[in-house]
Specification:
Helices cover 32% and strands 27% of the residues. The chain has a nine-stranded mixed β-sheet, sandwiched between helices. Strands 13-14-12-15-18-17-16 form a seven-stranded mixed β-sheet.
Amino acid sequence: MNDLAPLLTPEGRALLDEVRGTAPADELAVATRLRRDHPAPLVSAALAQARLRQRAVAKFGTEDAHRMFFTPHGVEQSTRASVAAYRAARLTELGVTSVADLCCGIGGDAIALARAGIRVLAVDRDPATAATARANADALGLAGLIEVREADVTEVDTSGHDAVFVDPARRGGRGRIFDPEAYSPPLSWAVAAARTARVAALKIAPGVPHEAVPADAEAEWISDHGDVKEAVLWFGTEPGAVRATLLPGPRALRGAGLPDPPVRPLGRYLYEPDGAVIRAHLVADVAAELDGGLLDATIAYVTADTLRPTPYATAYEITDQLPFNVKKLKALLRERGVGVLTVKKRGSAVEPEELRRKVKPQGPNAATVFLTRVAGAPTMLIGAPAAA
């Protein structure tokens, strides 16, 4: 399954076309039929690749995903195409024409960079991964701009490139790695490599402690359609700057170094900041924009008396505030005929599905309940998305 060569032959490519879209329930029947005319290992490899391509559609879109090649790890760890395109555009704006892409994986970022007209040296030490990146550059017609090299990134000379991009491995044999020095290569090595280039970008986990951000780096947290995807340390841009970038857009909120917002009573509206805003510690900047405050000093919900549309937070109009009590919530929802219940929580140990089972919502109406704390007390807030 890790050997792409048979899939790159005319027979392999024809098989990939034939098994495209095969449903899991149909795989056995399809495999049995195809093995009459093709080698069993090739049929298995084609079906496995088809499954990976189906998984990759969410990140790369239908057209690219069904032309590209993947490894299981590559699908999981590759950058979403929209995020990679945004980063490539930013590098282009910085005047970058060539990038050393270290730990390139299956080539997701290299593809976006090449499509932006940037020449790329893509490096990965894993033979299967490097072969996959090479196959993808060829499949998408970008081999002229992407050179794939199988090598240890710590031994590669990057001096001939305008910029360095490093995406260290953040998963090991036991799952996700939280210590940046346990990345492969370690964050300290990546930072040192970044400082050798005019411009550099280091992709890191969005949960990285702010204390781990070097003083000479700009820290950026990126979300796509509300889901936080990654954090990036930029060198050669704005040392010390912090920003939250929301895709599509892009819309960027640059931190102003504001103090924590005040805690205040619940207003008519509750604002749920975008995850990138929360990770970047820029809730204070959103609260200032909304003339709002916090419901609780430890909870990233902003409340205000007026509705002010902002791309950096979703607004809800709150109708009820109750101490946490399942029976009271059930009675209120029954009284209002709420059958579609959205449960959100922050600062509560209650699981949304558990609450939904207990209140058994029924009826034609919809509502949103927030399980949170107000001035330290467990609280339920009931409302609905605010009309713009």
